[in-house]
Specification:
With about 290 residues, the chain is mainly alpha-helical. Helices cover about 75% and strands about 5% of the residues. It is flat, with a radius of gyration of 27 Å.
Length: about 290
């Protein structure tokens, strides 16, 4: 319905039904500006690093590292081929798929084992007394120290890579699961008991939901470390994988190949983290800290 308003000493008709649409349009514009600002801020540090990289290579601070443009050209050849036509041309998807299988396979095994033990240690005092000291002694041992033993126990190839990825992802998930279970407010358990929720029902309806935020933090850390150790895991003689590509690049003194492998690992790890975060937000809709 139109209303008369005074604008600058003159009377004008304003359609009040258009105000909600104008508000929605302004809201969408504000959200678009916020997304643009967030994107620009996220690209600021990478842009600065690329600029420093360009200066370092053009000013010949080092002659062993190619320029960003040369690396970009080789990345295109690594992904789609048609430029250098060497043994690594158009093979990025093969190596990425091999690494994905090892990372997610080892991470899945680590998550199953760590969640089971973490819930047990956090909930059962006897299990904590039996298992926690041993696990705390084993935890500081770096994954690289397990490399010779993994090759002896599992042989050369993918099984050793699985084992090393498993070790890299296991402890962050375990520690955060134990912390989440032990941090459950006793008042929640008392309230559940007063409402008739006891035993296994109390664990599934109170303890596990309350521990989920900490568990998902452990899953994010574990998956990140799984990508972190994949290069070590693929030093065990596997023919395919991004870690194997990086090791071949080092052996052949092809720095551009090493950098391309690093970039793909970073992007794959970033996308993997986004997937875990999206799942966590969906399961933790009730948690204000994870919906923020």
């Amino acid at each position: 319905m139109p209303y008369c308003v005074c604008l600058g000493g003159r009377m004008a008709l304003v359609d009040m039904t258009a105000i909600p649409a104008l508000k929605r349009q302004a809201q969408h514009s504000g959200e678009a500006l916020a997304r643009l600002r967030s994107t620009l801020l996220a690209l600021f540090v990478p842009g600065m690093l690329i600029g420093l990289w360009q200066v370092a290579t053009t000013q010949q601070w080092t002659r062993l590292i190619p320029t960003p443009w040369e690396t970009a050209i080789y990345m295109v050849d690594f992904v789609v081929g048609g430029i250098h036509n060497d043994a690594f041309s158009a093979t990025a998807h093969i190596h990425l798929l091999a690494s994905l299988q090892r990372v997610y396979g080892g991470f899945a095994l680590a998550a199953i084992a760590a969640l089971t033990l973490g819930l047990l240690i956090g909930r059962v005092p006897l299990a904590r007394q039996m298992l926690d000291p041993f696990l705390q002694v084993m935890r500081p041992i770096p994954v690289t120290a397990w490399l010779p033993l993994s090759m002896i126990l599992f042989g050369l190839g993918a099984r050793s890579a699985f084992a090393l990825v498993f070790l890299g992802a296991f402890y962050p998930i375990l520690l955060n699961t134990v912390l989440g279970v032990k941090s459950v407010d006793p008042k929640l358990l008392e309230a559940a008991s007063m409402l008739g929720c006891r035993g296994n029902a109390q664990f599934t309806r109170v303890v596990l939901p309350a521990a989920l935020p900490s568990i998902f933090t452990g899953l994010r850390l574990g998956l990140g470390l799984a990508w972190f150790v994949i290069v070590v895991g693929e030093m065990t003689g596997v023919p395919q994988g991004l870690g194997a590509v990086i090791m071949d690049g080092r052996t052949l003194s092809r720095t551009e190949l090493v950098i391309c492998g690093m970039i793909i690992i970073g992007i794959a790890g970033f996308i993997s983290d986004l997937i875990v975060v999206a799942i966590g937000r969906r399961l933790l809709r009730w948690s204000p800290s994870h919906n923020a």
